[in-house]
Design goal:
This protein is of the alpha/beta class. The protein contains six helices and seven strands; from the N terminus they run βαβββαβαββααα. Strands 3-2-1-4-5-7-6 form a seven-stranded mixed β-sheet, sandwiched between helices. The protein binds S-adenosylmethionine.
């Protein structure tokens, strides 16, 4: 299957699909952290290149409800971020999963098809993650842990804080590749 992992610098989802024999590529404005097939640039340049499946992780900076107190100061940025999400969801690709935290995508575009948590996929963390799906079934939980850590919110400040907070959980990437790679 030809898989595009949009807005991914970590390579975590791309590598999970590659391990299962898929022809996967990540794409981000940033270089990839993990050597492998990666397009460094705007995903809209390559979105029409006959992909079978796209997993997209667009930036949530101007969309996440956790930043709601700043919303009135950033309306142009918010409009642009929503337009980017609309373009990703309208991509000419038969199967699409778009991931974001609890965000205004729900009120301004549509409600998510599913809300998942890292602790349903073998991690101990709590981080509500919404999925908007096209042509894909909801992701089934793989390993429910009883841990409920809050490491994401407690991460210390620093230049890499946003990266450490936004890297996809390996357990969720494995579930995506294992379940959606079968189709
Ligand atoms: C929230 S992070 C997602 C990180 C991802 N979960 C991972 O594990 O690498 C969003 C990413 O979208 C990238 N991005 C923003 N606009 C983009 C565009 N037009 N094309 C490709 N990537 C873009 C940013 O550089 C940023 O790395």
């Amino acid at each position: 299957m030809k898989v595009l992992v949009a807005c991914e610098y970590s390579g975590v989802v791309r590598d999970a699909f590659m391990r299962r024999g898929h022809d996967a590529m990540s794409c981000d404005l940033l270089p990839t952290e993990s050597p492998g097939p990666h397009y460094q640039g705007d995903v809209l340049d390559i979105i029409g290149d006959n992909w079978d499946l796209m997993i997209a992780h667009p930036p949530c900076t101007h969309l996440a409800v956790s930043g709601a107190r700043w919303f009135k100061d950033k309306q142009p940025e918010q409009a642009a971020a929503l337009e980017f999400v609309r373009q990703l969801l309208a991509a000419p690709i038969p199967r699409i999963a778009l991931e974001n935290p609890v965000s205004i995508i729900s009120s301004r575009i549509r409600k998510p098809d599913q809300v998942i948590q890292p602790y349903q996929f073998g991690h101990r963390d709590t981080k509500k993650t919404c999925l908007w799906l096209k042509g894909l079934p909801p992701l089934m939980w793989t390993h429910l842990t009883d841990g409920r850590d809050d490491t994401i919110h407690k991460m210390p400040p620093g230049p890499d804080r946003w990266k450490n907070r936004s890297r996809t959980y390996a357990g969720i990437a494995e579930a995506m590749a294992g379940q959606w790679g079968q189709r």
